[in-house]
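Bug report (template v2)

What were you trying to do?
Predict the complex of my protein with S-adenosyl-L-homocysteine.

What happened?
Run completed; filing so the output is reviewed.

Input:
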Amino acid sequence: MGRGIYDKKVLEAFAKVPREEFVPPEYKHLAYEDYPLPIGAGQTISQPYMVAIMLQEMHLKGDEKVLEVGAGSGYVVALLAQICREVWGIERIESLAIQAQERLRKLGYTNAHIVVGDGTKGLPSEAPFDAILVSAAAKKVPQALLEQLAEGGRLVIPLESNYVQILTIIEKKKGKFIEREAGPCIFVPLIEE
Ligand code: SAH
């Protein structure tokens, strides 16, 4: 990509996952352009470059169990499934979740699971997670996600205030949360039930 993505695992995952399989047929010819595309239900598959930045910020080595909140098409779950041991994705819109799970099954990902639900509550039954990625913009950090983060783990989340979204990285170190900003971003809103 030549735009600051140097993590080999991340680059390899992008090379392996066919984005065209995650967009509706009428958008397939645009699947390898670097922008978001509609996936139905008023939602979008995220911009690949932003996804690459987020994945790189997770600092994954390969043996992690991770969570994505806002699984949408399942594209990011597939990328994560290439990189780490086990992936759980939560999506609040059932139709999207069903399609995403079906795509992942067809593509042969046995380490990726999608569940329907409110991701602001995390997924207590599978916690703790070594890293958590939120693919929708939150007004504040959901407490449940901090609680479900393993020691040494990272939460990558777009935070919105005054109509500006900033990609934020929160690291859990010795029980403390260390927050850092990683630049502006644009995501659909995270909707709390
Ligand atoms: N990562 C997705 C991007 C989907 S857009 C992809 O690669 O396609 C963000 C998604 O977050 C939308 O599908 C939206 O329905 C979902 N979402 C918003 N609030 C949510 C919540 N509280 N819990 C789970 N999913 C949520």
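What did the reviewer find?
Strands lie at 37-40, 43-45, 65-69, 86-91, 112-116, 129-134, 149-161, 164-173, 176-184. The two ends are 37 Å apart (CA to CA).
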